[in-house]
Amino acid sequence: xxxxxxxxxxxxxxxxxxxxxxxxxxxxxxxxxxxxxxxxxxxxxxxxxxxxxxxxxxxxxxxxxxxxxxxxxxxxxxxxxxxxxxxxxxxxxxxxxxxxxxxxxxxxxxxxxxxxxxxxxxxxxxxxxxxxxxxxxxxxxxxxxxxxxxxxxxxxxxxxxxxxxxxxxxxxxxxxxxxxxxxxxxxxxxxxxxxxxxxxxxxxxxxxxxxxxxxxxxxxxxxxxxxxxxxxxxxxxxxxxxxxxxxxxxxxxxxxxxxxxxxxxxxxxxxxxxxxxxxxxxxxxxxxxxxxxxxxxxxxxxxxxxxxxxxxxxxxxxxxxxxxxxxxxxxxxxxxxxxxxxxxxxxxxxxxxxxxx
Length: 357
Ligand SMILES: NC(=O)c1ccc[n+]([C@@H]2O[C@H](COP(=O)([O-])OP(=O)(O)OC[C@H]3O[C@@H](n4cnc5c(N)ncnc54)[C@H](O)[C@@H]3O)[C@@H](O)[C@H]2O)c1
Ligand SMILES: [Zn+2]
Known about the structure:
Layout: E1 3-7, E2 14-19, H1 25-32, E3 37-43, H2 48-58, E4 63-69, H3 78-90, E5 98-103, H4 105-117, E6 123-128, H5 131-137, E7 142-147, E8 150-157, E9 162-166, H6 175-191, H7 194-202, H8 204-208, H9 212-232, H10 247-256, H11 264-281, H12 287-299, H13 311-320, E10 324-325, E11 328-329, E12 331-336, E13 339-343, H14 348-353
Parallel strand pairs: 2-9, 3-4, 3-5, 5-6, 6-9
Antiparallel strand pairs: 1-2, 7-8, 10-11, 12-13
Helix pairs in contact: 3-4, 5-6, 5-9, 6-7, 6-9, 6-11, 10-11, 10-13, 11-12
This protein binds nicotinamide-adenine-dinucleotide and zinc ion (ZN).
The site of nicotinamide-adenine-dinucleotide (NAD) has 26 residues, from helix 4 and helix 5.
């Protein structure tokens, strides 16, 4: 059964449809019929059957143009940003035309930034095709590209017109990518969503094997939590920081490996366990609950080992993190079951300890 949810506020509110057949004429048609031209952006790692389907549906309503980027993070570049903008201008796209992003977070992020800036904004449909993009990057309106000084340093907050999450496209996703996306799912269960937490505890096998009935629920619950948080704090001034649970340490681990050794979700899984241990050491959660979290992460076969990292090596990355405000490190910790808190008052010895037990 298709599920629908809304995110965003007032005139930038948008519909998110989650189903095993969300890429359909029924869902795409009503949006495209108001437009004359569409640019479909994807990359060469997105299975062709998905992009072909989007193109053939779009042809019924609009003149279709397409751009296929080279797969990988390096495609979120200024050069590609400019290339796509020029393509739009050369083909006389105007503000009444539309872009469809079909792909993972890389395609979604650069397409979103293009849409936010071409003629000061043209409409965008997100069709996320990785689990990470379906449960995280396609919702919330953050768009970005990378510059040589760092990742995601340039971008805009720009909500799409609609997000179509088709769970059937996940079947071609490599297991490692799928599992990395599951780390963000576990995050929603830990920071807010009790129902999702128990769903994950009760059904690891079904979730790992992408059981059709359960995966729709899992994605819906994840998006529901993300949508609730980002709709309350669209520009990241407050509670949106809760979504960074596990990310201060996760980012440090990724940066320490120069972004080559480990996927984002794999680093976040380690980071969430570190943050859970600190939450226990700080007296916010019981040992029993810490064990429940460990069992959950183990059931999904996340590699939680951190003995390869010395605190002194991660420290510079931890303190460079964007969660620093007015010189103080704000940590996102657990305040109890399915509850996250943001705090700058903690014993820094516990940061160190969390890497060694
Ligand atoms: N905007 C946000 O709020 C936000 C949030 C989290 C992450 N991000 C960004 O998302 C990016 C990571 O996204 P990602 O993990 O989706 O990576 P990705 O977009 O690079 O996709 C991973 C790989 O999977 C391929 N792929 C896509 N769909 C597939 C499918 N259905 N079957 C098989 N292969 C498929 C892609 O071609 C790519 O090679 C990063 O750039 C990160 O900064 C953005
Ligand atoms: Zn993340």
